[in-house]
Design goal:
single chain, alpha/beta, Aminopeptidase, eight-stranded mixed beta sheet, four-stranded antiparallel beta sheet, 36% helix, 25% strand
């Protein structure tokens, strides 16, 4: 069974959500063993999730695996129709593990304000995002709020970044496949010049979107793959273009596909090219709800002081946590991972001082403290 929190949390001198020294050391070791290990594929993700499940089971909890074998969910506290669950989420396994062990100790003492559900995110880097499968598996049933922390190397360790409203971008993925009559470069009028058509699409689509959409949407097209032709002086019969489209607002993300199809169809028609368009709305922006954002702010202020919370801008990065916020209110905090200037690096790598504070401890205490405030 896990450690008791009575000694630390009954003392007014100890911050809300503070973890016992033994649990802190365990989280740092876990972080070094799994979260800092270079990811080489699905197997590494599964081994870390398996270790989290095993440790939760050792504490007497009953985590379960989502369909397909990816993702871990664990309930803490008895189900109570009068008290909906608070869901906690993180991209760092040790953070969620630490919060879970701390809250389980409080539950055994009868001091957990409301039941909690841990959601260790599945397949976070795939598309479609693993959060969609988790939602289909009903992980949000009985949940009325969800809070998350996500590691951010641009923020100093010991601090978090918060923002009400959109904090990440929305993402669309675009694949164009063009076909037409190929032939000799000396007779371009008898062919479909797919190289020229592809080049035109690569330049026209970003330009048209920038002028046809609200500039506040921050639309940004980035091409990642262009393939056309295999020999000099030969016009190819097939070409492909693949890239991403990012937006700063939800409405533009939803409206973009119709405009993308319109522009691509017009360019393809100019060059007599047949074009197959594959457009996927990968993930909406994370839009932090006001009350949930302030809940995280209050928890961090009680834990570390008001100076430990900084306002952060909206990132062009994406996060599948956004899908949960399509169903329940919540907020995401950016957890600082950058060593503070002029101080030793905070326990982020093996071999550093044993007493150095690790960001995972701060993240676990943040989620624990937030759960005690609701």
């Amino acid at each position: 069974m896990g450690p008791t929190l009575s000694e630390v949390n009954d003392s007014p001198a100890v911050p809300c959500g503070a973890l016992p020294a033994g649990l802190r050391a365990e989280l740092i070791a876990f972080h070094q063993d799994f979260d800092l290990r270079p990811a080489t594929g699905r197997q590494d993700h599964d081994s870390a999730a398996e270790a989290v499940r095993a440790r939760l089971e050792q504490d007497g909890l009953r985590p379960w695996t989502l369909p397909g074998g990816a993702g871990t969910v664990c309930d803490i506290g008895a189900t109570d129709p009068a008290r909906p669950r608070l869901a906690l989420h993180s991209d760092i396994g040790a953070v969620l593990l630490g919060a879970g062990l701390a809250l389980a100790a409080l539950d055994r003492e009868g001091r957990l304000p409301r039941p909690v559900r841990l959601i260790l995110r599945p397949a976070a880097t795939t598309a479609p995002a693993g959060a969609l499968g988790a939602i289909e598996a009903q992980v949000l049933d009985g949940v009325d709020r969800i809070l998350a922390v996500h590691g951010d190397p641009s923020i100093d360790t010991g601090r978090i970044g918060l923002r009400q409203g959109p904090i990440t971008a929305a993402l669309g993925r675009l694949v164009l496949k063009l076909d037409g009559a190929g032939g000799h470069r000396a007779r371009p009028h008898l062919t479909t010049d797919l190289v020229m058509a592809t080049a035109k699409m690569a330049t026209e689509l970003p330009a048209v979107l920038a002028r046809r959409m609200d500039p506040r949407s921050g639309v940004r097209v980035a091409w990642d793959r262009v393939e056309a032709g295999q020999a000099c002086n030969v016009i190819p019969q097939h070409a492909e273009l693949e890239g991403t489209v990012r937006f700063l607002d939800l409405a533009s993300w939803r409206d973009a596909p119709d405009l993308v199809h319109e522009v691509i169809d017009q360019v393809a028609g100019m060059y007599r090219a047949k074009c197959e368009i594959q457009y996927q709305r990968v993930v909406p922006p994370v839009v932090n709800e006001m009350e949930s954002t302030e809940l995280l702010r209050e928890a961090m202020t009680r834990s570390r002081g008001a100076h430990a919370v900084e306002d952060t801008g909206q990132s062009l990065g994406c996060e599948d946590f956004a899908w949960y916020l399509e169903h329940v209110p919540g907020a995401l905090a950016r957890l600082g991972l950058r060593p503070a200037l002029g101080s030793p690096r905070h326990g982020a790598h093996p071999g550093e001082p044993a007493g150095a504070e690790d960001p995972v401890v701060i993240g676990a205490e943040l989620l624990t403290g937030a759960a005690l405030l609701v």
